[in-house]
User: What shape does this take?
Amino acid sequence: MDELTLLRNLDPDTPGPSPADTAAAWGRLVAAMDAAQPGASRLTASPSPLSFLERFARRGFWAPAAAAAAVTAVAITGAVIAVAGPRPPRPGTSPRPLTAASVLLQAASAAARQTPGHGRFFATEIENIDLYSSPANPVVTYWLGDGVTGRLAWLNGRYAGSLPQAITFGYSFTWATLQRLPTAPGRLQAEIVKPLRIGQDQGVREPLAALSFSLIANLLARAPLSPALRSALYQVAARLPGLVLVLHAHDLIGRAATEVYVNQNVPTGQALYFNPSTGAALDIGGFGPSPQCPSTQYAVLASGYVASKYQLPVGAVRTPRPVPPLSTFPGCGVYYTPPP
Amino acid sequence: MFAEIFHRYHGELYRYLRRRVGGQLAGDLAAETFVTAFARRGTYRPESPNARPWLYGIAHNLLRNHRRQEQRQLAAYARHGADPLADAAAAAEFSAVDSRADAAAVRARLAQLLARMPVGDRDVLLLLAWADMSYAEVAQAIRIPVGTVGSRLNRARRQLRALVDRGDLDLLGGHHG
Assistant: This one.
């Protein structure tokens, strides 16, 4: 055996990329293509993958003669690329099933294309819905301040106060921390996991995937995020195990959305409602005693950068929207009892 | 055309990067390679027979920023004799047999040797061994003369030869010839 063979036998069975890895990489490439030439990735107008490649050749993207000779029908694996919705299947083929990961990656691609915002504060108007308690669901507005020293200023219409230093979504991120988070999904995931592991060391029992998903959902819904960071958060979410996809869902105030949650094999959990075409997060929803039973939702009514902590974001409504009563969800009118 | 390039090379590039820096970073670097390649598509020479050297060259530039992680990956090989992220059941089976434990020790010494090797020598060696490149392709990928590929390889092989000459090679099994 020669020396190179010796080397080849060092970990020769290295696994290839998982479908999620491939889809994530493809999503990033698509985002880059679209940034260079908007609409370049859209396949809805293209009835077949081959014409997608032909369109690239016509637009002047390089087409090496050698590679052109090797072009055959390309199977586009991984993420759903179309912005307006899934492509209709070609005759004689069955449509590729959507997965939670692929739809999250679609949202990542859309988020990367959004125009970045700027402002001294980031305001979010939320309707706090709790089906198990008072029917009055207050509308509150949170202002996250880049203010004087990066403090959070919180106003709910009755009093103004400030919380010390950190933007808290269960775990502390300051405005400056958010600006510095990496946008490469692997590194971002490592950064997100750090405070979650500390929580687990301190007795938090939920699985890391569920905690990660919950934190990501909160950041997507309530934090000032650059397009790149928003995209990266969706990509990290797409990597998590146990994702469940609910297409054509509606939130509790009747808005159409796509829903994803992490299946923890327990009857309660948290779901993200979002728009894959824009990357906007609409709701963070809690459910129990089963995934079909919503219990709470933070419905984002409006959000955006503002100049002061007295300015409402564009689209703010100030009044709560009606929600269906708990009785309309069969089998859901019981409190969750933890297993012994 | 770029979609074709992605689907043809993403898997193998990922595997190569995973052996260099581990699973967690391999996905990011593989994705970043294709994004960077797209941004630099104007630098690709269409007369080249294939895009592999160009892509691996971009990947190697990105690897430069992750030498520390590469050292950690090699240290992990040295400790465990295998990728610590590999299947736990296979690793358990691997360590159960006495003769295989010796093979693990050889792999560990191999990993230590790689970690101590100059970066330029290691890059040449692993592109030949793990990416199955020719001398010309390696030269194109990391932009050195073909002659330099040969001299770096000879230097690296002399160090590996010392390991082979100890007579441990039969314990490794796997591919022969």
Summary: Chain A touches chain B through 51 residues (CB under 8 Å).
